[in-house]
Specification:
The chain is mainly alpha-helical and about 180 residues long. It folds into 2 domains: about 1-135, no CATH class; about 140-175, no CATH class. The chain has helices at about 35-40, 45-60, 65-70, 70-85, 100-115, 120-135, 140-160, and strands at about 1-5, 15-20, 25-30, 90. It has a two-stranded antiparallel sheet. A two-stranded antiparallel ribbon has the order 2-3. A hairpin with a 2-residue loop joins strand 2 (about 15-20) and strand 3 (about 25-30). Helix 2 runs antiparallel to helix 3, helix 4 (about 70-85) packs across helix 5 and helix 4 packs across helix 6 (about 120-135). The radius of gyration is 22 Å and the shape is globular. The N and C termini lie far apart (about 55 Å).
Amino acid sequence: MRLREPPLPEPPDRYPYIRARVQGETYVLRVPSLQFATRFAQSIDPKRRAQLEVIAGRLDGGNALAALLAAPQVLDLVAAFVGLCWADPARQLESDQEAAIEEYGARVAEELHEAGWKLTHLAGAGLALGRELAAGLELDAEVREQAAFFLERRARSTASGSRSSATSSAPTEAEPSPS
């Protein structure tokens, strides 16, 4: 890890940026977009992806060390995810992103270890990124209520054999009429 000269501007203190406090230092990470996270997940071998999902569940329960010791190769994937989400304005990772994903992750893990990150810091950062990504995908209550209303309305009209207003030529509340 090396210092950026000059440092980049400080990212805003809001989503998609999160801060990780490690050994008295604050690091900035950027929660990835859904598209980026999907591409990352698809780049992982399906067996490793399944292991990562199991371990993420264990990490959420707070037993990071036991979870990662059970499948140490998954640590490389967690480290790769953290490395790809790195957005710290003052410090730049030196690991080569062009390497294969697990090799890149192994390099990031070593680089962060050298900077004072413990296994729990790395696992915590990966889990925090995953939680924030999931939270960003949640629908708010108003959107859920509107979706439920239209789905319920459509189900009733389909069950009664009538045409749904969504398939008629008349606009619905969700389809504004052209002006």
